Amino acid sequence: MSVVLDLHKVEDLSPAGFYVALRLGFAFPVEEINQLPPDWVAHYTKHRFMLSDPIIRWVYSHTGIAEWSELANNDPNGVIRQAKTFGLRHGVVISVFDNNPEGQRSFGYFCRGDRDFEVAEVNALHAFVLQRHREMEPPRNLTQAEIEALIGVKNGKRLKEIAYELGVSEGAVKQRLKNAKSKLSANTSTQAAAIASSYGLI
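Predicted structure:
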């Protein structure tokens, strides 16, 4: 399993469900994929398990791979034990961090109901999380002028206001936003500002 998996292959390997958070910073990930059973998500949310979840604690203090069974001994609220009653009987968690300046890490946990994951399967899932983490790396080529224009958009200002504050023409602001949209693969200036904000760039 040296080929990096696509999402369909991940679904095949994790028939009981999985969750992936990409480029998680202080509060929210840039992107998340939640294919956990809805009943488990509702139960987890109702009981505020995130505050005591040993899997989440491990993610924030480690990189690499851990089997859920390794974390079950440090689970005073029985989160992992309760997950089993929702079909999440066997799990593996993967955390990656590349020392990026934004301090963003990515993680995923993957579940089966029938058996433990095989080593080759775990390695393939690790490669998937690492690749998606790298794909979501924020652009490093935004200029300071483009960032300043995006900040104005984020703050709800009109082109005329942004131009006045920056001491440039409206045409210059438009060009800066056009460049930023291209670099961020955004369709609109508002979308570009939202993407830049999610990356922690503005």
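Summary: The radius of gyration is 21 Å.
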